[in-house]
Amino acid sequence: MDKNLLDILVCPITKEKLIFDKKNKELISNGAKLAYPIIDGIPVMIPDQARKIK
């Protein structure tokens, strides 16, 4: 994940910064309790396609 891209991406719901989960290739939003997938190097920032986390 490009650090410059990670610096500007925010959760579309909470507008908070995201945490990159390298192992699962996801961007984590703690506030929204969602994990946005990264598919072929492209973050999918659609809440309906995010995985719910605890």
Written overview of the protein:
The chain has 54 residues and is mainly β. It contains one helix and five strands. The chain has one helix spanning 3-8, and strands spanning 19-21, 26-29, 34-39, 42-43, 51-52. Strands 1, 2, 3, 4 and 5 form a five-stranded antiparallel beta sheet that branches. The longest helix has 6 residues, at 3-8. It is globular, with a radius of gyration of 10 Å. The protein starts with a helix and ends with a strand. 15% of the residues are buried.
Write the layout of secondary structure elements.
Layout lengths: L2 H6 L10 E3 L4 E4 L4 E6 L2 E2 L7 E2 L2
Antiparallel strand pairs: 1-2, 2-3, 3-4, 3-5
Helix percent reads 10-25%
**SSE succession:** HEEEEE
Q: How large a portion of the residues is in β-strands, by DSSP E?
A: 25-35%
Q: What is the C-alpha radius of gyration, as a whole number of Å?
A: 10 Å
Average pLDDT rating: 95
